[in-house]
Amino acid sequence: MAEKIFSKIPMATWRWLGVNNATAEEELLAVADTRSFKIPAGTDKEAVVVIRQEQYGKIQVKLGENSRLKLTYVQLADTDKDYAGEIEIQLSDGAQLEMAAVEAGGKKAVSKVLVNLAGNSSRADVSVLYLGDKQRVLDMNYVMVQSGKKCEAKLEVYGALLDKAEKIFRGTLDFKRGAKGAAGQEKEQVVVLSSQVRNRSVPLMLSGESEVDGHHAVSIGKIDEAKLYYLMSRGLEMAEAKKLVVEAAFAPVMSRITDTELQGELQHYIKERLSDA
Amino acid sequence: MEKKKTYVEDIERTLYDIRNEDRSSYKVEQGLTEQIIRDIAAKKHDPQWMLDFRLGSLQEYYRQSLPEWGPDLSELNMDQIVTYVQPDAKMAGRWEDVPEDIKDTFDRLGIPEAEQTSLAGVGAQYDSEVVYHSIQEDLVKQGVIYTDMETALREHEAIVREHFMQLVPPKDHKFAALHGAVWSGGSFVYVPEGVKVEIPLQSYFRLNAAGAGQFEHTLIILEKNSSLHFIEGCSAPKYNVTNLHAGCVELFVGEGARLRYSTIENWSRNMMNLNTKRAIVEKNGIIEWVSGSFGSHVSMLYPCSVLHGENARCEFTGVTFASKGQNLDTGASVIHAAPYTSANISTRTISKSGGQATYRSAVKVTEKAHHAKCSVNCESLMLDDISRSDTLPAMDIQGDEADIGHEATIGRISDEAVFYLMSRGISEDEAKAMIVRGFVEPIAKELPLEYAVEMNNLVNIELEGAMG
Amino acid sequence: MSTNLLAIKNLHAIVAGSNAQENNSQQEVKEILHGIDLNIGQGEVHVILGPNGSGKSTLMNVIMGHPSYEVTEGSIELEGEDIKELPVYQRSRKGIFLSFQNPEEIPGITVENLLRTAKQAVTGKPVKLMKFRKELENTMTELQIDKSYGQRYVNVGFSGGEKKRNEILQLLMLQPKLALLDETDSGLDVDAVQIVSQGIQKFHNENNACLIITHNTRILEQLQVDKVHVLLQGKIVAEGGQELIDKINSQGFGFLQNEQE
Questions:
Q1: How far is C111 from chain B (nearest CA, A)?
Q2: How far is CA B73 from CA A12, B8, B329, in A?
Q3: CATH fold of C4-95+172-260, please?
Q4: Phi and psi angles of residue C257, each rounded to the nearest 5 degrees, phi first
């Protein structure tokens, strides 16, 4: 079957790294389930999107002036099928986005997320959790475009990789000229639980404006042994302790999922996936 | 002061706007033919294997296309590549034989003086050929070889053949292939087992001819437990046509050996600097790169360290200063290919007056490299809002025993810091210059004193009258 | 009465740009200082007290010339010359020194380098390296600062006490006519308080003057305070001698607020 470029990194680099493009099967990208909505100016909304059956989901949101959206996006697509997800969010002046994204399903899951901070003093606070196991492939491309004056972007990513999982996370802070006073922060923390994992991280920071404050950090490491030891000294088995440490790592994203039923389901789902490892 | 100023004059944009859109391989072939390669080889009395190598590289050059990433290279007229290639200077053996005007140039650059005061050996290349090489007697007695590549090819053919373009094979990219085909000049250093060269060796590269190219090859081999500090300096006068530099540096760091490779590059702003540098480090060996990129119109430079033996280490310290008319795409890459290897990358980039600075890096940890450790820190400073600063690091990590940290910041000079210094009586311009110098200080302190001074001067010249 | 060093008359200051045209018209002009009068004579020590947000630090920054504030009315004279239009560094060269409440961290510039550059700028004469080093070492010894300190980057990784020590070291090295000491932070540790107190004592003589913001009486213990000013909502609401400090320390600012209403 033919592969098609699904998303591109905003600035290309060496080809041998294999991170410039994310591809997906053409057939998969033929028809999208599109949800698009507008948040009226000055309103305060909450939205929960859970992906279970879709193969290609598309979400488009426009946030009106001074509106607020709390978006929970949970991708639990069939782990035997490929999945492609696309999210595009545009923020007007003073708009605020708080987003929790969970990327856990799919056999090969590609996702592209574009948060466009076009409005002055707009704010986006995005937390991402990803979980890769078995021989699954996670290929993500998150872009925060910062063009509004004094706009603020925060992108925090917490991941765990098991078995023979393969993952690419591209996270971009793109400061456009004129975005005076903009601030951006990106952070990715990965816990690797297997020696057969392949983990690629590409944090980009692009700037055409000097009056900005940008920062990104990535840390990739194995599980904290001191923590494991501590837990095991309290009577936990190695496997249990590991599970707990990974769950703890996910806590910042999980705590944002206010729908308790969904949170419970997700916790159960993650536990199960970790137990299978 | 006056002569340094010539380096910072900006070239007229209009001259760069003359482009040649058509670059089919047929035309390229017209520009660079097998006959030209054979001529070069004959002139240099290449052994047969080298001629074959050149011809093989030429085929590779035809095959490869220009990179699809990084700065726009369309200003480089590939049809005219032959003018970049044809050597235009004559070889001379001893310093006395070096033509007066060339000798003058190096005098002004302070090369002979540096040789007398602080260097163990000096090499000087003018355009395509090395015009001067010297080395201290006692090092020769210890078996240290420091000579130009042509001489090395004659006198140490076996060693050269074993290493030449093994680390940077011509198939790597188009300019590596071009280099393999037309290389000329450069330095060869061999340090035998256990020999520690305490004082630095230095090669100075000067490109003088307008519209020419420099394709020098530097090959350094450090045997077990030896050590060396090698300094490379580059400059060229300003011309209104594009010059091309596609050098190649190959460094072989043996078991327990330690090599420091320092570069201050100040090519004039008509230079396309497409240089390839690579080091392979064996068990317990250390490669230390200190890299200052100030000049050139376009640069693509990412020294690569292959940590091949257990516990091998890489330290990379770099500063890039992109000003008007400059697109400097620099960085580093590290391949962890053995257990317990470690790397530290620390860079500072500055952009101003419309300059573009890109930090690009790759950290690769292979499956074999358990307990690899790498930490990357890059900081970017933008001095105005007509410039660009991009950071593009990539990490490709296999296995669960790696410890990888990456951190980057981007921003401008803090108003509060300027106020603090001004409240101590320091003028605004000087306060800003101090902050910029402080910003590059971590790199300056790694350089030999005279280069640190040179770098501060470069920063000062760049900042003169530009701020406030 | 001694010769007047600093004379502030009817000083009004706003947040810079807050009255500018391009700014949102709904936004009010943020005036922080509403007409301050203050005279400091040579050889004097003045103390400013006031609750948080009363404009104490702003006043010091306005005297020093911080670009974040704009003087809209009144004058600031140093030895009879109006300095309110001068840029910061020229005020410094005329003899004003500000010891910052939170000194900036400046990576890559060593303490010694900063002091040498500043000394040269302030005195307008080339500084002789050996002589300067000796003077620096002597001053460091006086302040019980280790010599290695000179090679550290300005305030980078310094503890609160070390930052204070660095400010006082600069004060002693630069020998200004008027020292502004912003010790707003009541959370200074014992060590820092000691340093500031000793530093001022070493510095102060009949030819210079100090203006100190502090609540900490220990800083003032060894000093003869000539005058105390109480700042409330950008105005000086009370003036007096040492006794005013004691009163405020025991009663707070409440009695003054009541008087205001």
A1: 12
A2: 15, 22, 12
A3: Rossmann fold (3.40.50)
A4: -60, -40
Residue A247 falls within a domain, yes or no? no
Tokens 């190649």 correspond to what residue?
A: B248
Domain hosting A36: range is 3-223
The per-residue pLDDT for range A126-185, each reduced to its tens digit, is 999 999 999 999 999 999 999 999 999 999 999 999 999 999 999 999 999 999 999 999
Do residues B382 and A210 lie in contact, with contact meaning Cβ atoms separated by under 8 Å? yes
Is the pLDDT score of B14 beyond 60? no
DSSP 8-state secondary structure symbol assigned to residue B430:
H
Q: Which residues of chain C have pLDDT under 50?
A: 1, 20-27, 261
pLDDT on residue C25: 43
> Per the domain annotation, does A249 fall within a domain?
no
Residue C21 token pair: 């045209």
Spatial separation of the C-alpha atoms in residues B108 and A86, rounded to whole Å? 61
DSSP string, A18-73: --SEEEEETTTTSS-EEEEEEE-TT-EEEEEEEESS-SEEEEEEEE-TT-EEEEEE
| Helix, coil or strand: residue C135 | helix
Tally of CB atoms within 10 A around B231: 23
Domain regions of chain C by residue span: 4-95+172-260
Residue B275 per-residue DSSP state: -
**pLDDT, tens digit (0-9, with 9 covering 90-100), for C199-237:** 899 999 999 999 999 877 778 877 889 999 999 999 999
In sequence order, the β-bridge partners of residue A217 are A187, B407
Is A in contact with C (3 or more beta carbon pairs below 8 Å)? no
Q: In total, how many domains does chain A have? A: 1
First to last CA, chain B: 22
Cβ-Cβ contacts under 8 Å for B368 (sequence gap 6 or more): B337, B338, B339
* Residues on chain A bordering chain B, Cβ-to-Cβ distance under 8 angstroms: 11-15, 17-20, 175, 177-178, 180, 192-222
Tokens describing residue A200: 């690629």
Q: Is the separation of the CB atoms in B238 and B210 below 8 Å?
A: no
Residue B320 has a pLDDT of 94
Non-local CB neighbours of C197 within 8 Å, separated by 6+ positions: C218, C219, C220, C221, C222, C223
Q: Is A275 part of a structural domain of the chain?
A: no
Which residues lie across from B346 on neighbouring strands?
B317, B377
Q: Residue B1: CB partners within 8 Å, gap ≥ 6? A: none
Contact B428 C89 (CB under 8 A): yes
SS3 (DSSP) at B175: helix
Q: Is the pTM of this model over 0.90?
A: no
**Cα–Cα distances in Å, from C123 out to B322, C23, C90, C118, C178?**
35, 41, 11, 8, 15
> Which backbone phi and psi does B64 adopt, to 5 degrees?
-80, 145
Strands A212-222 and B403-411: antiparallel
Mutate to test the interface with C, among B377, B420, B421, B423 (most CBs of C within 10 A): B423
The two three-digit tokens of residue A28, written as one number: 């998969």
Instruction: Check if the beta carbon of residue A239 is closer than 8 Å to that of residue A208.
Output: no
Q: How far apart are the CA of B444 and the nearest CA of chain C, in angstroms?
A: 10
If phi over 0 gives left and psi between -120 and 50 gives alpha, with beta otherwise, what is residue A122? beta
pLDDT tens string A221-248: 888 777 777 777 777 777 777 887 888 8
pLDDT of residue C253: 83
Q: How many beta-carbon pairs below 8 A join chains A and B?
A: 143
ipTM score for this prediction: 0.93
